[in-house]
Write a structure and sequence with these properties.
Shape: globular
Number of domains: 2
Strand content: 15-25%
Number of helices: 9
Largest sheet: 6 strands, antiparallel
CATH architecture of the largest domain: 2-Layer Sandwich
CATH topology of the largest domain: Beta-Lactamase
CATH class of the largest domain: Alpha Beta
Distance between the termini: 24 Å
Length: about 240
């Protein structure tokens, strides 16, 4: 919170060294905090690499309605109508996906899905896309104390199998989940990058009750997801 206050309250961009000095914390610690805030969309870097607050940080002070800009929400609602699926936007926090936006609200594995919801990353398409951005060493650390949990017979429940699946996801650029978290729930997800080339979000489409077969997701849902992700990246939303 002190870091947010420093960045949000400064009229000028602040460098890592300046923030470290103001907070009395080591650069490595401050860098980790800043990386998390970047992923969540609350800070960004200017052309010098200094940190500035984004509009999302300002919106926090006006209530918890959404951390997603209205233009982004509008684009995602259009995507939901185009694909006939539920659309979600999320980021990785540890071994879980933190949902920043979902339209329409729903549930999975007994968890109500809306802003602020969390689901296990390894059992969801949106989570696997996010995990695929991490190096193997970081993945090993995440699951060092306990292996990925099984939720259905389709869940990837070993680190070795998960690493293999994530390698394929990196190769093809999108992820699919077919009943891995909940029987009958199918989803596809793609990464969304910031203009700096760093991962910003994962964009997810899901449908339950076998309304769309996995093969249909690959042919009918993934292409619109990829197009929407590219538009978000190009517009810098």
């Amino acid at each position: 919170m002190r870091l947010l206050a420093e960045v949000g309250g400064s009229p000028e961009p602040l460098t890592l060294a300046e923030l470290s000095r103001r907070l009395g914390l080591g650069k490595a610690t401050v860098r980790r905090f800043l990386l998390s805030l970047e992923v969540l969309g609350y800070v960004e870097r200017d052309h010098r690499g200094a940190y500035v607050a984004t509009a999302a940080l300002g919106r926090l002070s006006h209530g918890p309605r959404s951390v997603v800009a209205p233009a982004v929400a509008g684009a995602l609602r259009e995507l939901a109508a185009e694909t006939g699926t539920a659309i979600s936007l999320g980021v990785l926090q540890g071994r879980e996906v933190l949902y920043l936006w979902r339209e329409p609200p729903g549930s999975a594995a007994g968890v109500p899905l809306s802003q602020g919801a969390r689901l296990p990353a390894h059992a969801t398409a949106i989570g696997k896309v996010l995990l695929a951005q991490l190096p193997a060493e970081s993945l090993a650390e995440l699951y060092a104390n306990s292996p990925p949990a099984a939720f259905t017979t389709r869940t990837i429940a070993s680190l070795q199998l998960l690493l293999g699946a994530l390698q394929e996801i990196r190769r093809q650029g999108w992820a699919l989940s077919d009943g891995e978290l909940e029987e009958g729930l199918t989803a596809a997800a793609v990464p969304v990058y910031a203009r700096t080339g760093e991962l910003r979000w994962a964009l997810n489409a899901s449908a339950s009750g076998h309304r769309l077969a996995p093969a249909a997701f690959a042919t009918d849902v993934v292409p619109p997801l990829l197009r929407a992700a590219r538009r978000l990246e190009e517009q810098g939303l």
